[in-house]
Amino acid sequence: PPNCEEVPALTTDHEEADTRLIMHAVHASEQFRAVIIDSVDADVGVMALGHSKKFLCEQLALLTGKSENNRLFDLTAVSYTLGECMIEALITIMRSPAVILHLDSS
């Protein structure tokens, strides 16, 4: 039988799948040198950038898109290139009601 154990760091009341995905990726980064987050939602990449200091892995990437249109983004390089101020600005823009409304209607 598989060995299962509760991981307190992953216990949350968040129902949003994107938030839980980031939590799991941060947890995985404690054990692995590279983590690839696979999500069709590019905003998950923005969320990962916002939490980039929590990731302990050497390499963080986002695989996004659908089937033959998949794209792999090197979030480690993006984070380094943008810097903290630009990442904060990007997160602020993504949280804006106008952007949220547009994303929801896509």
Please give the structural blueprint:
Elements (H helix, E strand, L loop, with lengths): L16 H13 L4 E5 L4 H8 L8 E6 L6 E4 H21 L1 H9 L1
Parallel strand pairs: 1-2
Antiparallel strand pairs: 2-3
In short:
The chain is α+β, with helices and mostly antiparallel strands and 106 residues long. It has helices at residues 17-29, 43-50, 75-95, 97-105; strands at residues 34-38, 59-64, 71-74. Helix content is 48%, strand content 14%.
Helix/strand-derived category reads alpha+beta
Order of helices and strands: HEHEEHH
Radius of gyration: 15 Å
Q: What helical percentage do the residues reach?
A: 40-55%
Mean pLDDT: 85
Sheet of most strands: 3 strands, mixed
Uncertain regions spanning at least 5 consecutive residues: none
General form: globular
- Helical stretch tally: 4
Structure description:
It is a single chain. This protein is α+β, with helices and mostly antiparallel strands. Helix content is about 50%, strand content about 15%. It is built from four helices and three strands. It has a three-stranded mixed sheet with strand order 1-2-3. The chain starts with 16 loop residues before the first helix and ends with a helix. The model has no long low-confidence stretch (mean pLDDT about 85).
